[in-house]
Amino acid sequence: MLKNSIDPKKFETFIEINRRINSDYSDVHVLLTDILESATRLVDGEASSLLLLDKESNKLFFEIALGPKGPEVKKFSLNLGEGIAGWVAEHKTSLIVNDVGEDPRFFADVSKKIGFPTTSILATPMHVKGECVGVIEIINKKNGKPFNQEDLEWLEIFSTQASLTLQNARNFQKVRDEVDLLRDKVTSETGYHTFIGESRVIREKLELVKRIAPTDSSVLILGESGVGKELFAEQIHLHSPRKNRPLIRVNCAALPEHLLESELFGHVKGAFTDASQERRGRFELADGGTIFLDEIGDLPLSIQAKLLRVLQSKTFEKLGSSETISVDVRIIAATNRDIEAAVEKGTFRKDLYYRLNVLPLYIPPLRQRTEDIVALSNFFLKKFNRETKKQIRGFSDQAMEMLLSYPWPGNVRELENTVERAVVIAKDEYITPQDLLLPIENRESLDNFSGKPFREALLAFKKSFITHALQRHNWNQTEVAKVLGIQRTYLSKLIRELEITI
Fold first, then answer.
1. DSSP at 452
2. How many helices, marked H, and strands, marked E, lie in the chain?
3. How far apart are CA 200 and CA 458, in angstroms?
4. What is the mean pLDDT of residues 483-492?
5. Total structural domains in the chain?
6. Of the residues 13, 21, 283, 358, which has the fewest C-beta atoms closer than 10 A?
7. What pTM was estimated for this model as a whole?
8. Residue 391 counted as domain residue
């Protein structure tokens, strides 16, 4: 056990990692990296690795490697029982080896090939339900010091955290796969959203949708987050000859890179750790129908090349397979990013952009189509009346005026959340401005600055102006700085000085 005197900083790090483990399963690789970085720092290691055991091949693969030679280390693998890590995995026992040259279990091959001298190793197994699933090892304590029992106990604690992270992520992935399959099944039958749009600009967009829907050309839907890009993708599919075939949806930003390729193209059994059975990818499931790739701007470059091939030849291979699969799929992509800027930066392939952008469709933000606010608000009111079993009759004139004047940085999604919140807390027959709980800062006009000394009015205007810009761009300071034409560091300084709270 650890000594009674526990380092507060170490304990704080442990608590923070533990909190994240229990609240975030979206990217297991990031969480495991954080755990390994924390463990390495707390025991003063020079380098470290987290290896995962592949049961079928009985090999340990370097999932994460930190230190000056990290990228080179990840090229190697160890057999079960090979080296210190292999011995720890095989015997499910932690080890402190402060003189690797005197230990016959040490496998010097990796150390020699990467040119990183190893003098000492601290290694602990990772357990899930009594089985070893991997190993964490710390290489060389700084300043030539030996690892001690306290270091080992801390590393065992962090190994337990890593094991819990892995187990939670696997459970989460299993549930999500089941939900995704069910959602896609329901969506392909009846699961489409009700389309609400009264404004002239939206009606024009729908007419354009009807013209482009009968073709098989790729469509790139552009617009801010929450404007309803997925609903337009649904309308394109429903007005196309493919309407009786599946519409498969993929959020490219919701999955880490190492899972996204499998999600899109599928994998064969044994293609990677945890690939215990063959899986059909989303493109295969969409055969004959449409695939909607949301947040395409977040697609990693490594997968962009494979997507380009699907666009060009309608063929691909599953992860871990050399067998070519042909599909007949119409691709609709969407992004809230400045995709042309991404092309200029080199983070998005130019050839893929041109392939996707055959039929561009821009969806304007809600603040530019205020005619839709009344219809959408009433639609959401009826929806949440049913769900909460309330009978709210409508919005007061003042509440509707507030809805119409608010800039809606989160667009339709924010409006829906606002109406839901108002229905839940409303006590009267009609929703009042107080029920909406909209930020006062966003309803400021020039009248708010009149009657004030010039300097005070100028500061108030700056605060309002920058707050509006931040809300329009979902508090992304990098984007706001670019739009305002100022440095990112200067924007951060203004936010602090003007006491703008996010």
1. S
2. 20, 15
3. 37
4. 74
5. 4
6. 358
7. 0.54
8. yes
